[in-house]
Amino acid sequence: MTEEAPKKPLNPPSDEFTEAFSARIGSISGTCEFCGRTYFSDQGYGYDEGELEELRRKAAENPDKFIEWEGGPGFVDVDGRHWVVGCECNAPRRYEDWIWAHRWKIADYLKARAAGRMAEAKEFEAAVRDIPSLLENVQARRVENDGPKEV
Ligand SMILES: [Zn+2]
User: What is the whole-number distance in angstroms between the Cα of residue 65 and the centre of ligand 1?
Assistant: First the structure.
């Protein structure tokens, strides 16, 4: 029987990564969607009646899962899930490490995608450029068919 090596704890994501992928929202409480820990603000306002007391009761029973913080949690969005900024699971670090390890391939990919989009935009620009003359042709045909309108 082989023993599974203990998982090495992840370092927190960098400030740059956290800023880049910030959900730009905060809340008085929130659950990390990577590990299930719930963080809640120690401020007494913004809660429904009894809500803060309920969270504190849960924290007393399960201090590793319900954590009272100074201020409310912020969030980082990665892979369709919220990570609570500062949560000890540090889940976004795996994504950051992958991005950084493949940064040159990712840069090439972004350049290729941007080039494709640029070609598409140029085609669209050319098509749109002809619209005013097409409209003039349509108007001219109407005048030919209906004759000039009398005022
Ligand atoms: Zn977490």
Answer: 10
